[in-house]
Each structure stands twice: as structure tokens, then as C-alpha cells.
Amino acid sequence: MKILLVDDHFVVRDGVAALLRGLIPEVEVSEAIDGESALEAVQRSVPSLVILDIGLPGISGLEVTRRLRPPPPQLPAGTAPAPLRQLRVLFFSMHEELPLVRQALDAGAAGYITKGASPAVLVEAVRRILAGHAYIEQPLATQLARQPAGADGQDPRLQGMTQREFEIFVMLARGLPVRQGGGHPCLSAPLDCTRLVWAPPGPAGAAGGGTPVHQRQDGVEPRHPAQAEAAGGVPR
Question: What is the rounded CA–CA span in Å between residue 130 and residue 190?
Fold first, then answer.
């Protein structure tokens, strides 16, 4: 069985690969440093399992997973090679926000664990997914069960965001730096008509306050979400 490990940190790749080779001797582990090289590796040889992070240089792990998803059943037989239809994805990420976990599962992932998980959890997840089961780290699974989709109290002002915009929003909310161009860890393609910017803290009641806001590329001034709400919604 072949496993493709995708992470832009050498120490993470080296450690996880060594762990898997030592505890699951029957697997063959290959590595990729970003989403583009992962897709190229899958084209050369389809693995049984792809283990990847959400934040990758270039296209995000979420977008990689969407691109690996087989076509719908109604398409002609043979549209996707049989090995690709059997490929499974496990997210191994620092992110534990439920909306991102849901996006990963919706994208087609068979499992999700955080980088804070023990080696035993990682090995168990790999074994179960290779056996055809799903696996979600227990704390995340418990939170998902307690907060079904649509019941997590998400701010309605975020509901108009695209998947890419929401990925960037989470990064900004965590205080992570925004990289330029395609190097952004979650930006899979340029945004069509808007981009998210970080509004610096301002006086009470003023726009800003350290809140991500939309800024249109056509020159329209950015508005704080509260202003957008008063105007009838977040500007698109």
C-alpha cells in the first residue's frame, strides 16, 4: 500500500514518514511539499492514502482534496481511473476549528486528526482509513456530534463567503500572516471580485477593531461587517 505525505515542513514529513514506516512496515511512503506537487505525484502513481495539511504553499489541502474527488456517478464509466476512485484522504493539521473540519469532510476526506494527536492516534487513523473506515480524532468527533452543521452559531455575516474566502478568514482570525500571491497557505486561486483585508484596531464603535473585512478590487471602500449588515449584507 502506498501513502503520499504532503506537508511543507521537512521535520513533520520526516517524523511522520519514519513513524509510519516503523509501525506499519507494509506501507510505502512518498512525500510532497505542496499541493501542486501532490497532484503531480498522484498523476504519476495513485496512492491508497494521501495524508495532508490544510495550509500548504500554493493551493490549499482543501482544494487538493476537491480536485482528487472522483466525478459524480452519473458521468460515463471510466471517467476517473479505478485507483483514483479508491484513493482516500486523511487531514493532519494544526487547525481544529469545526468549520474547517466540516469543509475537509465535505471536500471528500475520510478522516481528520490534529498535529497535537499522539503517534498512536495517527497510526490508528491510517490503519482504519486504509481498511475502508472513516476516522475523526475523538475530541473533534465529540464536538461535531454536539454541534451539527448549521448549529454552530456561525455569524450570518460569514455565510456569504466563498470557501476560499472563509479559509483566509480563519487564518486572519488566528493572527497568521498573509503571504503574497499564490504563496498564501489557503489561497487556491485569485479571488474573483473581492479580497479580505485586516482592519486595524480602531476606537470603540468605529470600523476596524481588528476584524477581517471585505475590500473590493474595483476601488470601492472596504466596510466593517457591522456597516455592511446595516446596508443589507456583507459587500461582495
Answer: 35
Q: Which residues of 116-152 are buried (b: 16+ CB within 10 A; e: fewer)?
A: ebeeeebeebbeebbeeeebbbeebeebbeeeeeeee
pLDDT in tens, 164-196: 666 666 666 556 555 544 444 444 444 433 444
With cut-offs at 50, 70 and 90, classify the pLDDT of residue 58. Answer: confident
Instruction: Quote the CA–CA distance of 85 and 151 in Å, as a whole number.
Output: 32
> Under a CB-based contact definition with an 8 Å cutoff, are residues 142 and 97 in contact?
no
Q: Cα separations (Å) of 138 from 124, 142, 145, 154, 187?
A: 12, 6, 10, 22, 29
Q: What would you report as the CA-atom Rg of the chain, rounded to the nearest whole angstrom?
A: 19
**Grid cell 503517534 — which residue?**
119
**Total-model pTM:** 0.66
Please give the helix or strand (H or E) that residue 49 lies within, else none. Answer: strand 49-52
